[in-house]
Specification:
single chain, 118 residues, mainly alpha, two-stranded antiparallel ribbon, 3 helices, 2 strands, elongated
């Protein structure tokens, strides 16, 4: 990391994570277009407990997770290094990875639910 901000690799990874999340929203919307409603919430056993409009399910979570990453990039770039405690590069690698994993879990649950539908 330079005194000006996080490394270019960390920023590129965070932007790539945003693209992956948005692509997952597009994939979800197109893959499950035969359903008007998709599970918007699951219980602790992984069973769907609420159905929401397909586009909401497809885009809400990837959109919110992408917004979190955009805010992290903004903070990492705009906040002077003197005001931060430590290097923001690690958080720009770790947090997007965790958020992509969370989206992958949601997609796995959605896939399981869709396979059980007639």
């Amino acid at each position: 990391m330079t005194a000006a901000g996080p490394s270019l690799a960390a920023l590129a990874y965070a932007v790539l994570a945003i693209l992956v999340l948005l692509a997952s929203g597009l994939w979800t919307d197109r893959t499950y277009r035969r359903f008007d409603r998709l599970p918007g919430h699951y219980d602790l056993t992984g069973q769907a407990t609420r159905l929401d409009p397909r586009r909401q399910v497809a885009w809400l979570v990837p959109g919110l997770l992408s917004l979190v990453i955009v805010l992290m990039i903004g903070i990492a770039v705009l906040v002077p290094s003197e005001m931060k405690r430590g290097d923001s590069t690690a958080s720009l690698f770790l947090t997007p990875s965790i958020l992509i994993t969370a989206q992958a879990l949601q997609l796995a649950l959605l896939r399981r639910w869709a396979r059980r539908q007639p």
